[in-house]
Amino acid sequence: MPRPKSKSELLEASQANYQKLLDLVDSLPISLAKTDFPPGTMNRNVRDIFAHLHHWHLMILGWYKVGMKGEKPAMPAEGYTWKALPDLNRKIWEKYQDTDLETARELYQATHQQVHALIESHTDEELFEKKRYKWTGSTSLGACLISNTSSHYDWGIKLIRKAMKVLQA
User: Fold this and answer.
1) Separate counts of helices (H) and strands (E) for the chain
2) How far, in Å, CA of 156 to CA of 48, rounded?
3) pLDDT digit string, tens, across residues 51-90
4) pLDDT of 130
5) CB-based contact 115:61 (threshold 8 Å)
6) pTM of model > 0.85
7) Cα separation, 5 vs 12, whole angstroms
8) DSSP assignment of 33-83, as one string?
């Protein structure tokens, strides 16, 4: 699917990859969905992927709330730079280690709906005009949302598929 360039394309891509991820997980026997992936990735199972995506939803929703008040959000998070994403992602991973698969999935689904509603509330121009909002810097709100929805969901799908090829071999 090409990178979205309009509100309708963003909604379609986001929803399509959201559903693909859920369908992929639903196609797995529950025992496999709860099995750790082969070594080599920080996000070691389906729960970790749902939790990671949920937390990034929370971050974009937070950035949006702060940014739309005319303030500068801490991006990607307080105390972290974009170059320190591995450290931030490790902190996110650690935060959800006591969360079960079902709860992580529910959190992911709930915050996806919140981000989807945010997309719905904007026009094409508001989403895709670069530098429209000071807080998004040189990019557009839509680009931030693509990174936190359709593209990020695709990352999760690919990670699960890669792990399942090894686990089911």
Assistant:
1) 8, 0
2) 10
3) 999 999 999 999 999 999 999 999 999 999 999 999 999 9
4) 96
5) yes
6) yes
7) 11
8) HTSPPPSS-SS-SHHHHHHHHHHHHHHHHHHHHHHTTT----SSBTTB-GG
